[in-house]
Amino acid sequence: xxxxxxxxxxxxxxxxxxxxxxxxxxxxxxxxxxxxxxxxxxxxxxxxxxxxxxxxxxxxxxxxxxxxxxxxxxxxxxxxxxxxxxxxxxxxxxxxxxxxxxxxxxxxxxxxxxxxxxxxxxxxxxxxxxxxxxxxxxxxxxxxxxxxxxxxxxxxxxxxxxxxxxxxxxxxxxxxxxxxxxxxxxxxxxxxxxxxxxxxxxxxxxxxxxxxxxxxxxxxxxx
Length: 223
Description:
Blueprint: H1 3-15, H2 19-22, H3 26-29, E1 31-33, E2 40-42, H4 43-88, H5 92-106, E3 111-116, H6 134-142, E4 147-149, E5 169-177, E6 180-189, H7 202-222
Antiparallel strand pairs: 1-2, 3-6, 4-5, 5-6
Helix pairs in contact: 4-5, 4-7, 5-7
């Protein structure tokens, strides 16, 4: 059968939906190849198999959507708990502590580190204010979104100390104040697939905004 003739037949059947009602016996007389090889099946059986495959595909998509929705809801709950914790923090040191606590214990991030370059006027030295390279600070200034991927480059993975050599993926979240960047939040994992380039970053952006706002607030109260 030529392609043109086959197209004409297909167009005729689409334009005449009552054809098989008029010739109902043809449904049992026409046999087509089984979709998975082997024996031939009737047109009616072939249609049933097609519907079953579509149903399985739809069920698979629905299951995936439900799983994604459940995961997103769980992350949203964690972000909410982080928000409540940051709002309740009354000091700069308490805020830094809560950031690490929530990200490690609630989000299950193995390694968390923070570097800041706008030090508030309060006594004492904190590791979060250890100087970083000018190149990294410039890089943070130009970041449009969080970085997710390997630990190669940037130098931030060294902030994790002895754990650095075991890390295989990381997230770098720029922290911003009223006049530009104020720091960088880094999270690392020994799982190379925990943080990857194609992952969604909506919640990471939200976490960056929350942490930035909290740090700016308590820094002002410390002056």
